[in-house]
Design brief:
about 475 residues, mainly alpha, 20 helices, about 0% strand
Length: about 475
């Protein structure tokens, strides 16, 4: 007879095996978003991207009829561009909303929060259409930006929930960046077309679209947060209880505190994030600057109406489409860099995200701004400066994509906070920078005002050049980046 002691069914070894078995059961469970079919994943992503595009229209479509709105509400632009306040308050709300909203969606689930935000956003568009005074318009647009900003940024989190590797996420996130920028770019064109009826119809049409889309959102938006799905299933499935018990359950107060403080901490203590945010925020702000600049330049030089000037904004969108196509081979180049990585073999090098962005910044952004500025003479056909704007659109798409991807790769564990810092900078630049556009183009002249922006673009190009040259060393010296690696 053996004298061996039987294994303790409650000992550490047994508990470890049970946990490992439970985690395997979850990894192979068809309810796990990583196990969904590609068709199901893309349905969710395309829906969220469509919402992002449509929300972007609300941000900027008001710029085309802004002078008509100002006249109706007796708002004067004589000493200050007060007519731009509806865009400023929208973007300020969009800058602040994601810092609180995205962490809550991340911890408590995407679907229910997404539907609630969509309803609240739509409800805030209705009073924009029927606003009896300027104050009502501003308040409701600020709230629309607050709710809409969270919805706009949600697809990036959704893509991370559905695809576990950066190779799989490349295309979804690149596409998301494209619709994010395209939405705010096309807003003035939509305002031009619909505004021919009345400025209020710019918002009526949006309300109709948002309401018509709502049943589709209800039916097609799925819960994508794996931990949330796991917690729900574990209540009825014994095999998943151990894996669910290992999930972190942070307190809401601690969660919100970190959500607000960490992006600010990263922005002002990490040079990589600070300078890349300046670069990306300048690009995003340019899209909004152009809503003011184009109207001023084309009405003065070519006697374009506000509606016709709004249509010129489509040239930026054409450039963004080309930029999206150009980003696809850049993603392939990034994946192939894994073979050259001697520090972490098999892992792509973050700096491989940047090569295309450097000529895009120098030739597309700076060159496009110089082209646009020095072609802005009444004796030069309007199509010539318009081509310069297409170059700017190309660069904006390439640069914002490169920045988002690079920061996500470098700050893996804290990617959400790092991207929130960038989004904060982008929306604040978009909110406040255009307020100086009219006076800048009036005082400096069309040529030198655009040239000043071009010189800023040249200087900011130093950020990716330095990272491409010394990026490994800079990342190696950052304690935050070392901590952020899984």
């Amino acid at each position: 007879m053996s004298n061996a002691t039987p294994a303790d069914p409650t000992g550490p070894s047994h508990r470890d095996n049970t946990l490992e078995s439970s985690q395997r059961a979850w990894e192979n469970n068809l309810a796990n978003p990583f196990q969904w079919s590609e068709k199901k994943k893309w349905r969710v992503v395309l829906l969220a991207a469509s919402v992002t595009l449509l929300i972007g229209l609300n941000a900027t479509s008001v710029t085309t009829p802004s002078l008509v709105i100002a006249e109706e509400f007796h708002v004067s632009d004589e000493h200050f561009p007060h007519s731009y306040w509806p865009v400023t308050v929208w973007n300020t709300g969009a800058a602040l909303g994601p810092m609180v909203g995205l962490p809550l969606l991340e911890n408590f689930g995407i679907r229910n929060g997404y539907l609630l935000l969509y309803i609240l956003f739509t409800l805030m568009v209705i009073p924009q259409a029927v606003a009896p005074n300027f104050a009502t318009l501003l308040v409701t647009r600020a709230l629309a930006g607050l709710f809409g900003g969270i919805l706009q940024n949600a697809p990036e989190q959704i893509a991370a929930d559905l695809w576990p590797t950066d190779k799989e996420r490349n295309l979804p996130i690149t596409f998301y960046t494209f619709v994010y920028v395209a939405g705010v770019t096309l807003g003035p064109a939509v305002g031009s077309i619909v505004g021919a009826l009345s400025w209020r119809w710019v918002f009526y049409v949006q309300v109709i679209i948002y309401c018509a889309l709502f049943p589709v959102v209800v039916m097609m938006m799925k819960e994508t947060r794996g931990p949330v799905i796991l917690s729900r299933l574990a209540t009825t499935d014994e095999s998943l209880k151990k894996a669910s018990a290992e999930l972190p359950h942070p307190q809401i107060t601690k969660l919100l505190s970190e959500a607000i403080s960490r992006p600010a901490h990263l922005l002002f203590t990490e040079p990589v994030i600070f300078f890349l945010t300046l670069w990306a925020a300048f690009c995003f702000g340019l899209v909004f600057i152009m809503t003011q600049s184009i109207a001023q330049v084309y009405s003065t030089n070519y006697t374009f109406t506000d509606s016709a000037s709004g249509l010129v904004q489509i040239s930026l969108f054409v450039g963004e489409c080309v930029g999206f196509i150009a980003c696809l081979p850049q993603n392939t180049y990034y994946q192939r860099s894994a073979a050259r990585n001697t520090i972490e073999p098999g892992v792509p090098i973050p700096e491989a995200r940047l090569p295309l962005s450097i000529p895009a910044s120098l030739i597309g952004l700076a060159g496009g701004l110089f082209w646009y500025g020095w072609a802005s003479f009444s004796y030069i056909h309007w199509i010539v400066p318009t081509i310069g704007l297409a170059f700017v659109g190309f660069a904006v798409m390439v640069i914002i994509t490169a920045v988002d991807m690079y920061i996500t790769d470098s700050y893996t564990k804290f990617a959400g906070s790092a991207i929130a810092a960038v989004a904060l900078g982008e929306n604040l630049f978009a909110a406040w920078l255009p307020l100086a556009t009219h006076s800048m183009y009036t005082n400096l002249g069309f040529q030198w005002a655009s040239s000043l922006l071009g010189f800023v673009a040249v200087v900011l190009t130093l950020a990716p050049i330095v990272l491409l040259w010394k990026g490994k060393k800079i990342r190696g010296k950052s304690p935050f980046i070392r901590e952020a690696k899984y």
